[in-house]
Protein: Ig-like domain-containing protein
Amino acid sequence: MHSILGCNHPTFTLPWRTLLPYLMALHLLHLGSAQLRMVAPSLHVTAIVGQDVVLRCHLSPCKDAGSSDIRWIQHRSSGLVHHYQNGVDLEQMAEYKGRTELLRDGLSDGNLDLRITAVRSSDSGWYSCAVQDGHGYAEAMVDLEVSDPFSQNVHRWTVALAVVITILVGSFVFIVFLYRKQAAQSRELSESFQPLPPPKSL
Structure:
């Protein structure tokens, strides 16, 4: 486990689940010019449906990013989640409209943190944070995993209900089978003990 210090950020532990996210981020850290570099303190962020979440990135070395072109992009669709340029928030994907905020208080320190409010299951996936200014271009990636406990509970109850119904139907079929078998045996037994006809008179 390692930790990376951001620009005036506390230490964040990198919960690397696999080697792939690390390799992707390491590759992106080398993109751009030698004068501009991007760091993602946490490659993997988790949240629950309905919560607010902050995706963090910062410039290294720390520098004022207030006049930079900053884009947070959803990797899956290549759509703009948030676009900031020269102090103005520009157009973004309809799915994120009104749900994102670039935390401007940290821009002067090189922090490009993005807050997403009321996250949805569809928000899960990789996001790239890209910045461009007169010194060059840099990019880093963050993976967001959104879980839905209610959906998981519904799935578990659905599976349990299906099992119960299967058991009940199987039990009913078995009981009907036993009943019919017993009825058939009773008829056979009754027929085997029928009284003999009376003898004929001479």
DSSP finds two helices and 13 strands in the chain.
